[in-house]
Fold each of these.
Amino acid sequence: MKKLIIIILLFAAVNFTGVGQRKIVNLPDLPGYVTLKCDFHLHTVFSDGNVWPTVRVDEAWRDGLDAISITDHLEYTPKKDFIPVDHNAAWKIAENYARDRNLILVHGTEITRNMPPGHFNALFIQDASLIAVDSVWDAFAAAIKQGAFLQWNHPGWRSQEPDGIPKLYDMHRKLLQNKWLHGIEFFNDSEYYPLVMTFCKQYNLTVIANSDNHGVISEKYKEPAYTNRPMTLAFAKARTHDALKEAMFAGRTLAYFKDMLAGKEEYAKPFFYQCISVGKPYYENEKSIYFEIVNRSDVPFYLINGVPESPASITLPANSITRVVVSRKAALPLVYDVKNIITGEDEVLKVELTFK
Amino acid sequence: MKKLIIIILLFAAVNFTGVGQRKIVNLPDLPGYVTLKCDFHLHTVFSDGNVWPTVRVDEAWRDGLDAISITDHLEYTPKKDFIPVDHNAAWKIAENYARDRNLILVHGTEITRNMPPGHFNALFIQDASLIAVDSVWDAFAAAIKQGAFLQWNHPGWRSQEPDGIPKLYDMHRKLLQNKWLHGIEFFNDSEYYPLVMTFCKQYNLTVIANSDNHGVISEKYKEPAYTNRPMTLAFAKARTHDALKEAMFAGRTLAYFKDMLAGKEEYAKPFFYQCISVGKPYYENEKSIYFEIVNRSDVPFYLINGVPESPASITLPANSITRVVVSRKAALPLVYDVKNIITGEDEVLKVELTFK
Amino acid sequence: MKKLIIIILLFAAVNFTGVGQRKIVNLPDLPGYVTLKCDFHLHTVFSDGNVWPTVRVDEAWRDGLDAISITDHLEYTPKKDFIPVDHNAAWKIAENYARDRNLILVHGTEITRNMPPGHFNALFIQDASLIAVDSVWDAFAAAIKQGAFLQWNHPGWRSQEPDGIPKLYDMHRKLLQNKWLHGIEFFNDSEYYPLVMTFCKQYNLTVIANSDNHGVISEKYKEPAYTNRPMTLAFAKARTHDALKEAMFAGRTLAYFKDMLAGKEEYAKPFFYQCISVGKPYYENEKSIYFEIVNRSDVPFYLINGVPESPASITLPANSITRVVVSRKAALPLVYDVKNIITGEDEVLKVELTFK
Amino acid sequence: MKKLIIIILLFAAVNFTGVGQRKIVNLPDLPGYVTLKCDFHLHTVFSDGNVWPTVRVDEAWRDGLDAISITDHLEYTPKKDFIPVDHNAAWKIAENYARDRNLILVHGTEITRNMPPGHFNALFIQDASLIAVDSVWDAFAAAIKQGAFLQWNHPGWRSQEPDGIPKLYDMHRKLLQNKWLHGIEFFNDSEYYPLVMTFCKQYNLTVIANSDNHGVISEKYKEPAYTNRPMTLAFAKARTHDALKEAMFAGRTLAYFKDMLAGKEEYAKPFFYQCISVGKPYYENEKSIYFEIVNRSDVPFYLINGVPESPASITLPANSITRVVVSRKAALPLVYDVKNIITGEDEVLKVELTFK
């Protein structure tokens, strides 16, 4: 009798299901494209990470991502006394595991050198071991030969650039001339580099956000400090490995982290308008117009620099409806800067709020 | 210098906006109808509640409701030594306040008698003071004369029915004969009464969920015990006071509380199918079929009684995607009982899962 | 059978107990004194607040406070069309209710005038109605005649001082000359006024933190923005109404809000040392000393300005143990500024960390 | 200018400190003993776990534990295609890492056989590789030769005992006769086995709770399902490796998981009284006595079976103060069963509540 009571106690909080659940990440598609949520920079015990490759798949699946790449260092394998070096091990272990979970696994690796040129991920490759060569230029060539998307990682990392500012060295210019450099990380881990926007616009490169995680994702990116992990939003023609590759080479991305988006205006602007909808005024009087703005995305938007007679700033929290009362004297449509959508080194997105 | 540091410290967590935000309640519309989230049973300092009427509007707005009714007791006004009795006071105070917030305010009151007949809310009235009469039957008549929707409150409340089981007394049968009774609370506060489903189906009454709150909503309905307050989902032709009234008289509702829905199968079934979508299999092999079920609603669904060779149970948490692997031997489509959608005193909804 | 399952579902999260629970606020006593947690500024429906007086008692009890005062405005009663003015109503309603909950209720009221002199609370009074007189000086005199502790409220409130900076006007100087002014709010709601520290030290006044709440405490002070409500820590000889009064007149307080403490160094310093303990080194080698610092209080401490060879800053989160590794070259004991313990307008507490 | 704004945005939530913080686990010491919080059953990539050994140290340190043992399977090493088998690898990797963090690391391993005899941890060993022998009895002997504490793991694990009930087979009886068996897991992961209490009392064995974790601790044991990981509370004469070993052989433990404690009454009773204190009545009238019970521990206590005229049940939530009102007719001291302190297969702890 007492035992029964005790058993119920313990049982109550346990949820048996035999199936798994993942989060829905509320980030809209763009017209004609599906928005794939990706993290292209992750480590495991096969370089200096602390988890088994399947953990990266489980984390990404749970977090609602569509694609990841495990990119262990080629040149830095501090666990080699216990784990023999095998640059394709993570791929071999995770490949079917990802397929069974409907997660796109991108074969990748990290070319890890001093600055210049620094660290680079080679993505969409076939065999990482062929890229493990002495000369960094040979390594780049070997990656490109496999059709790799070459991504410059954390270009302003303070361990390599003490002032935190990315710089284009000769090697980078040579990569650009060869069209061998395809993207740069704007966000890496909890850092970001405004100048990357200038590079990406000038040389037509893809803007990227990755976690570069070595430990446990859920222990790093948790509330209240972080509501989400860094991710690259790739606007692909379909939810497939090849469509993702095409989108990355075409530069159709936004970089997303915390409450910030960064990328080219041509993607940032329609993305914003897909996230929010401005309702028809529900009440008006001689003085004011009352209406609601719905933000159905996980990204809050901070509208600032309102013109006179309109609200100076409007916060549109993630997944919520905001009530706005504006004076009849305000010029319509309302125009704002979106403080947390970065479209250039010194530039944020400008938007208009038009009643439905 | 130090002052500056201190000021930043304090400032960081404060969010100035000048506008207000409300929650999005993820409960889908039905084809041809908008789903209005309503709480028709609330108290204020004008009877035995502890808050001012505007608090009820603010709470409902923040919680994403579409409509409320403040229903102070006519016959129980324990604060009258400090607050003179005025049965329409809450309405007068809250009317414009609700309009400015795009919330539908339903004029209501509670007729408060011993059992039988117990407590009843008169909703959609014009003047509560005219219903404050000695004879309960006269009170009912006065309400009906105003076109009231008459709702029987917490029919199994243990203070009035010690065994917790609702009973139809002569007075109730007389109300039914007169077509004066229109709905019954299935959920009230944190209680519920399975027998109400039988009454509602037998006499064609509206199934209702209300909070009957006297204190502060956010202090009662909070995690981990409660993810949401009780609410009646009314399927209305538009988001207006009159369309809501029409829906309530027509009985187009579901009662919603915690992780439970209760109501007639004709509304429960399409509502379930609006909440979930079953994806096309993303992987198959000789043994198994792999697919995902998306639940875009705030209601988790507990599927049980799976047939042999299919998962015995599947949990579809609120706002998440569930991965399911089924044997090729399983009979398709998969059929399940939804444990937390109550369609009768002893009955839950049966559903089919069909690939898109 | 199915009903049983359903009933268990609903029951699981409901906690019936018949008794009530309150939070333990982890703030240590000082040697010879008990630390009473107090909020001396609260409103109800009897002025411009939105809750019944018993709600203030319930909130304070749940939040682990020892004492409160309900201080409705004498001169501002916007609900008087529905609630007749009675300046002692809140006291009469809450007195026994507080006694039954082991909460010290301080009879108080708010004298509410334009600046100068602004708003003042009269605390520890007997009859608020006697203070409701035309001349503000007469009101002060009537309060003092009842033995009141006179507290200047939010002296830099921007509605009365557009630059946010408190100013001593003639009326304030006259109050100081008469010894009629006893304390000033350093924290009010989510504001604070650094200059108050200068006034309190110069004129030997009591430093105070109050919520000045008009709505619902738990809706305002909640995570992640706020971990706690503002409160005055009074160091009293016993947990009684009269000992609290003595402590307030004697100026033995600290003002506490969010992650900040403010007050005189003579109380701030021993309070800090009661909160933390520095462990004996648990490991040492040629280069470094390893030890732990325990912070058993709800207040995090931010140690900054470490000397060379010692950590530049150390964060001691609330209720946690911090591991510190210091170089053998560091000068012992370690000295730091505690960024969030304010002891003057431009001054924070300086502390030493000495191994046990 | 805009860049500045953006930088502050990102910076706000990031907490740089250079030192680490751990949780305080509020579980009191017993008179004469320190309470060491231990998890003696953990896996890593060196058997079938998914994390690197240092992760186990970091997790335990953060969770406020005092001691752990990493106990990779000797006979089950599914990652051997990628990681060569080394039964002491985890120990070698974690030893200094634990020392630097003030965590006691117990050298251990898991002997992993079919039932009978099932799985056993050998704790406090020197060399796991010597225990990796064919015959299970030889393995036991090799462990005992190293002075091992032998712990029977999850004796009712359904993969080995389909009915979930632990059974003593010949091998177990032989171990008992030899005095080679020292303890049994009452809690393992989220399971527990009431019968273990009977075995432990009959044969004077140590009652143990372990996580047996293979993945990430923080992803398994999190709210709302779990407030803490399973842990063995060992009452040791000092916080040292050797004192812990002595306590374990002496059987001075309680097993702790979720909101349950299990163990011998001689430890459970004083532990309960160290957790709670009953205050002196703060108010009395003709009918009732009002007092408070403080529970300063992380364990809630559910008091049930109150005698007539006293509350039928009292819940004492973790780290809180409970207000109790008892009738003057109640027999004092109040006596209760503590539903969640298990002292036998069918037995819970009985306690008395005496005013201070």
Amino acid sequence: MFLKPRMGSGSLPGAVRLNTPSQSHFLRPDARASPPKPGESSNSAIPVRQILHLIDHLVYKQKMSSTDAPTPGRRRGRPRKPPGDQTARQELIRTGLEYLTERGYCAVAVDEILRAAGVPKGSFYYHFDSKEDFGGALIGAYNEFFSSKLRTWFQRADLSPLDRLRGFISDAEKGMEKHAFRRGCLVGNLGQEMAALPPGFRSLLSSALSDWQHLTEACLLEAQNQGEIGKHHKPDALAAFFWIGWEGAVLRAKLEQSPDPLRQFAAGFFALTSN
Amino acid sequence: MFLKPRMGSGSLPGAVRLNTPSQSHFLRPDARASPPKPGESSNSAIPVRQILHLIDHLVYKQKMSSTDAPTPGRRRGRPRKPPGDQTARQELIRTGLEYLTERGYCAVAVDEILRAAGVPKGSFYYHFDSKEDFGGALIGAYNEFFSSKLRTWFQRADLSPLDRLRGFISDAEKGMEKHAFRRGCLVGNLGQEMAALPPGFRSLLSSALSDWQHLTEACLLEAQNQGEIGKHHKPDALAAFFWIGWEGAVLRAKLEQSPDPLRQFAAGFFALTSN
């Protein structure tokens, strides 16, 4: 769609020039954002719910430490299953990812996730100290899931390297379509909200994108070695370009409720690699 | 940065194929999102503040209708200045844009904006029926501001068409740097939050992007007519590609607190136009 039959070539005079970075910027886990000011909270209503949470949490922790800690006189046997077992944790992560890929971090309350997951509050606080702690775990789980998806595609020996990337793109499109384009990328959603998020999220989000970018770079390098991409291209710069634009395409697909932005971005990207 | 000295060319075998859209997708103002369910509210705390708002609003409206409505026996003279004059409206819009470009819609409470703008609540409800009404006005004001900025750059007769686009990019970079990369694009922020927003916002956001895209398309067409871009390119597809990726670049610049993503995306885009 980007390339009509070639009829001429363009020149690039440039009165206004942009500096290009001399090195990759994806490995900077510093968090320069200042913590939110007290008056800037998004919920300045009477914090009854938060107080109840805190009391619930403290009572629960107290109870756990007094009943579950090993004591000299305690009888032998299989230890009691903690109320927050791993199944509950997995369910919280699964439901959390579902909600946050759809609506982001700020618009989702922990209570909603508990209700949807059918997990009691005590179980939540057994596994996570706070919403922030939970959010961090969600970013980690999402990165793991997504890196694994990319690895699976990029290891497909039956496809050429560029077709592996096309396969991932088609897969992502199907994934968005399945959920009627309501769910986007957790990292993109949270990246957009960064100014309202706990500062510690910045390096987690940045690391996730850096991981995906490195996996993509390796795929593009293989494409270059196999002659699918010209030797004049730099796989690291192409991979950076891909992930910068891809997050924009996912955002736009959510907004338009259509796969077109994903396809339009992919078409432009492959036109770039083919020159 | 994308083009090293040319040493070979790539081929594009394709086992996995992507469909490309046959027509532009940017003019679909339909909003298929269903309204939020009652149980899905992001704030299920005791809604004392909301009740106070409502009472305040009703009392204010009642007062306005009983004192400001023209009555037969009312004495002549200059009408009383309404409490919500245009200066207050402008201040609300200015402060609202500041807050929402930084943190999005969901994370910002109207009360914060009122405090920061130094505008009383009555004045807010004189101009806007609700946060949703205010949000819609903000999208409109932002589109107006941004379209005007694009027009100013694209009308620069002293620059070549592609340099006009470079000028806009440099300008945007300076704008983000000025606010330490805390503020992004209002349309990108809200687009990312779409699933948590009033459904009516979808067409407003989509229209804004469509406006910017058409202005950019005209600039790229001029670039093509002046020989800066090859005749084989389609300016409408390039403009769509630019705005899909640019929103991703702004998102990433916010996350990385760096201008590099903007520059990397621009470098890739201009490499694409030069082939």
Amino acid sequence: MERVQAGHVPILGLQRDPNGPVRDGRFAGKHILSVKQFSKADIQYVFSVAEEMRTMVELVGTFDLLKGKVLACLFYSPSTRTSSSFIAAINRLGGGAIPISEVKFSSVSKGESLPDTVRTLQAYADVIVLRHHETGAADTAARYCKKPIINAGDGVGEHPTQALLDLFTIQEERGTLDGLTVTMLGDLKYGRTVHSLARLLTLFNVKVRLVSPESLRFPPGILEEVRAKGLQVTEHTSMEDVVPDTDILYVTRVQKEYFEDLKAYEAVQGSYVITSETMKLARKDMVLMHPLPRVGEISMEVDDDPRAAYFRQVQYGLYVRMALLAMVLGRA
Amino acid sequence: MERVQAGHVPILGLQRDPNGPVRDGRFAGKHILSVKQFSKADIQYVFSVAEEMRTMVELVGTFDLLKGKVLACLFYSPSTRTSSSFIAAINRLGGGAIPISEVKFSSVSKGESLPDTVRTLQAYADVIVLRHHETGAADTAARYCKKPIINAGDGVGEHPTQALLDLFTIQEERGTLDGLTVTMLGDLKYGRTVHSLARLLTLFNVKVRLVSPESLRFPPGILEEVRAKGLQVTEHTSMEDVVPDTDILYVTRVQKEYFEDLKAYEAVQGSYVITSETMKLARKDMVLMHPLPRVGEISMEVDDDPRAAYFRQVQYGLYVRMALLAMVLGRA
Amino acid sequence: MERVQAGHVPILGLQRDPNGPVRDGRFAGKHILSVKQFSKADIQYVFSVAEEMRTMVELVGTFDLLKGKVLACLFYSPSTRTSSSFIAAINRLGGGAIPISEVKFSSVSKGESLPDTVRTLQAYADVIVLRHHETGAADTAARYCKKPIINAGDGVGEHPTQALLDLFTIQEERGTLDGLTVTMLGDLKYGRTVHSLARLLTLFNVKVRLVSPESLRFPPGILEEVRAKGLQVTEHTSMEDVVPDTDILYVTRVQKEYFEDLKAYEAVQGSYVITSETMKLARKDMVLMHPLPRVGEISMEVDDDPRAAYFRQVQYGLYVRMALLAMVLGRA
């Protein structure tokens, strides 16, 4: 299998879209820390590579674009879903992984600082995927690390690869990002993914509708921020009013851990459950998304509806993470 | 190294037994959930592939039959032995693994259901090995998963790969399965492996002897089931009576966790210990097996006896698991 | 990529130093249990291979010298740093790893003995890296294991790969081991690494200075042992007296877990902190080392000083561990 030069030739001889973005290797050696670092052209770049990854996985499953590269998966707060996704991504590109999810037992528990930990791991690995419970941890790590850091979630801060895969899902499911009405539903206060997705959507011509109980409204600061960038946003409390005109329905999990009172949790948790009845209100081409895991926000009876895209969303995540790994390692 | 087509040509040019089973790829894309799904011909198929795996490992250690394939090792109740065996198996076939043994920290602990977890993992992996504490979990997972599920133990239910490796051990050690006297010893009530092995033995012409304390007798329901299928079974309490005529002595661990009372455990635990003295009663060609781990049921002084097959049994397990992976992935 | 014959040809066509040690494959199939097993010629052998590993990693990152080999990483007491280092090492040599750091959940917790565990793992893996909390565990494991065991730390006993990487760091940073003054600072009582390093240094023409608080002095028994072998050693309590003449300053972590009283810990912990002021006293070519993790013994302001070698030391560790793996597997 021939090896490709960084960003200059298509992966394994795929015919590349002549109208697609020029591959200038702009992400080679870069950290992926925040959605804020991505321009519209950057996102088109990521998606162009992610589509090639999709084609390659569908054709051959795995290929050796990153053969010999080693990924350190440093998870201070474990997330099977995200770490599995990155380990699968590096495996499908022919590279290897060092999974580190037992941070509580590690040097860190002996008092080692994050800067020392990443400076140790950069001696072993070519790229570090970091999940951390403290907001800003990825930025700190990046300041000390010569190898690319990919932020896989830091506290209530950023989770840029999730936001990119959410956006890529919309692109793949609908063929465009412009002209759509995107409805976000559920916990819009603590749901990190909807904040990041809203920021990315400011780059496109979309309408956003926010549906939540009063106690879980979208944070005013971020709302102001995205409106200042021209995003059309309206707030609602009733799901039934907005579902019929919705192109993308993005449902979030209401996280029990943010409630002091179990009753308050249950009241809110049950208030926006998507059922077969809800889907009858929706358009034939609506796309139903969820970052997963779900705990009842979408009834299992909806799973077989072709509009239910949340398991395909997982698959798109693999392609986006493969693309990001190849890009920061200078191979796409 | 040339790649082989599914089930049609021998692995890497090995001369295949012309009297062996026709390789029709019958397991491609199938789940491995229960010993009950295997006919005698199926077992011959598995063993024929497992013997090729043995030859290849002995010749070259590792080969690229499953290069590019990714195994998700999803262990809700951790088992170093079984997960290590599967990770070694996929490694020796050139593929990669996603080890997930920290299920308590994962999405599952956030309330995710098994169906959602396997539908997520099938986006990343080509095959899923599942261990779960609930009987029937593997069946549930299989209903929702498009990729093959291999049941690596579900509660007190099934552990089919263990039963197959036990049977393969007998085949390899004695050259046949027919005409043997198999004695099962120890905890026959809770010992999942002896139940599955007994079921598989109904396919062959063997005599089975069950030796246990009264409180740990083989479950009457399963006993009736295997007798109805024609298996000759007798029950005993004294080991000394049956050892001299035994071809295969299968010793099981008495699991402390099933006893409320430590004294009752100790009384039973010590009652059937295999020592050098026991081995003096046994035939020169007897095969001594144990699913491991042991906690004293076989004295360490027996380890150097050539009839002690329990560490070879571990090795045979690698070959059987390599065979099953190659088969469900359509490569054997 | 051509495969090389064990120890007979240079790795991937590298020009080998004609004055270097003859590669006779003397470590093929051997255990690495203690620094005491290494002669001066052995160490030159290890370092000669480690330098080739360094060259190869700098040139190509990863190469297939151990393609198809499987490493079992059996850690009874978890150490992210050491296990990551070995997993990276086998990955960069093209092999695979079975990480086992959850020993508390494993067969071991069901009462399995170390001899049984290693006899199980040798059926799956080609080499076993073992960390254990009990002194002597590696020797026990080696007695039962046909595959090479590499001791990655057993209790307060040995940690030979750390000692070898420490020595290799001195060699690489200063170009020689002879004629140097090596100062060891901090916890010299419980610090396993300084004991092993001192033993290795007896093979070379060096002066050793030991600086510690009274309560953490170097163990008299080991002091006597290394002096009997001709090592020139002096003991000190003041850092300032010895730093100016020091070639190698080896700082150790004061481990909180060894103190019953937090106050006593803090008094000692703060007594030998390396700061920019300390570095002003030091020679321009002094090499500052630390086995990491550190918890304040070296101020972060020193990190950018070119004499601060502790993160390079981590990198050298990768090369040494790659060398040891290749050697015991008969490939160097």
